[in-house]
């Protein structure tokens, strides 16, 4: 039986019995074949259905990602920044998050959420947002409120992505030494993702040319980031950033305006 036999007949052999047994086994074999065939067809159907669901899901994800990006671009365009600023911030943030050993699914959230860091600029009047010269004290207070406005517009979501975006929007101008805004958080009180975005946002702003300022030379930018270690920025994250600077420079080159 162990080698695959399913039946046996005892001597003396009766031809009637043999025929009956053979008939039974042929029927059994036909039933087995039919079942196998049916299972195979079922597997194909399930695979096709799964593929369709997957495609639908990919499309939904794609639409979500694109909707986020386009919404952020709309707010950013008022600022006369190019859409490339947001694209670079996303790439830099994900890269730095990965170098800081964040798990890959969190890196993906960070990639999407970082795009929304300045969403609150949508609530800043043109006269301030687009002012060519320096802001006066009162204008500066209004300008700083883009952090709170952004956080308010993302508040109370049940989705991790939007919760993360809220915390980044609120805290990306906090400083490690506690002298940032809007809450004056200090050190690790500042959410880690906001500490990451804070570094790459400053890096990108300094490297970028704006209507009111020239782009700063690369070495000078690195010098400033190094000098702000443990002042504006988390020292450990600055070290990781500088240790991998070549990769950030590649992103800057690939996504230049
Ligand atoms: Fe900002
Ligand atoms: Fe920014």
Structural commentary:
This protein is an all-alpha fold and 257 residues long. It has a domain of 173 residues: Hypothetical protein af1432 (Orthogonal Bundle), CATH 1.10.3210. 66% of the residues lie in helices and 0% in strands. It contains 11 helices and no strands. Helix 3 packs across helix 7, helix 7 crosses helix 8 and helix 8 packs antiparallel against helix 9. The longest helix is centred in the N-terminal third of the chain and has 64 residues. It is elongated. It starts with 14 loop residues before the first helix and ends with a helix. The mean pLDDT is 92. Bound molecules: fe (ii) ion (2 copies). One fe (ii) ion binds next to loops.
CATH superfamily (homologous) name of the domain at 82-254: Hypothetical protein af1432
Number of helices: 11
- Helix and strand string, N-terminal first? HHHHHHHHHHH
Task: Indicate the CATH architecture of the domain at 82-254.
Answer: Orthogonal Bundle
Major beta-sheet overview = none
Class computed from helices, strands and strand pairing:
mainly alpha
For the record, what CATH class of the domain at 82-254 applies? Mainly Alpha
Give the uncertain stretches in residue-range form: none
Query: CATH topology of the domain at 82-254, what is it called?
Result: Hypothetical protein af1432
Number of distinct beta strands = 0
Radius of gyration (Å)? 31 Å
Properties at a glance:
257 residues; mainly alpha; Hypothetical protein af1432; 11 helices; elongated; binds fe (ii) ion
Element layout with pairings:
Blueprint: H1 15-78, H2 83-99, H3 104-114, H4 126-129, H5 137-144, H6 146-154, H7 160-171, H8 192-207, H9 218-227, H10 235-243, H11 245-254
């Amino acid at each position: 039986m162990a080698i695959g036999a399913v039946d046996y007949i005892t001597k003396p052999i009766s031809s009637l019995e043999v025929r009956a047994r053979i008939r039974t086994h042929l029927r059994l074999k036909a039933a087995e074949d039919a079942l196998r065939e049916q299972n195979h067809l079922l597997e194909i159907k399930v695979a096709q259905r799964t593929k369709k669901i997957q495609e639908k899901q990919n499309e939904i994800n794609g639409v979500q990602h694109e909707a986020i990006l386009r919404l952020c671009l709309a707010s950013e365009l008022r600022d006369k920044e190019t859409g490339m600023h947001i694209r670079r911030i996303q790439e830099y943030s994900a890269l730095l998050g990965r170098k800081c050993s964040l798990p890959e699914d969190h890196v993906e959230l960070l990639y999407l959420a970082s795009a929304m860091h300045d969403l609150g600029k949508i609530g800043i009047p043109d006269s301030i947002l687009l002012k060519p010269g320096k802001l006066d004290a009162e204008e500066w207070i209004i300008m700083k409120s883009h952090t709170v406005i952004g956080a308010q517009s993302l508040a109370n979501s049940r989705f991790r992505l939007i919760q993360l975006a809220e915390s980044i929007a609120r805290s990306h101008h906090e400083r490690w030494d506690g002298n940032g805004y809007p809450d004056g958080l200090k050190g690790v009180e500042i959410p880690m993702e906001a500490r990451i975005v804070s570094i790459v946002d400053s890096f990108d702003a300094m490297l970028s040319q704006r209507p009111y300022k020239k782009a700063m030379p690369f070495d000078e930018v690195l010098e400033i980031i190094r000098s702000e270690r443990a002042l504006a920025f988390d020292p450990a994250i600055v070290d990781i950033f500088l240790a991998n600077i070549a990769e950030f420079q590649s992103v800057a080159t690939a996504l230049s305006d």
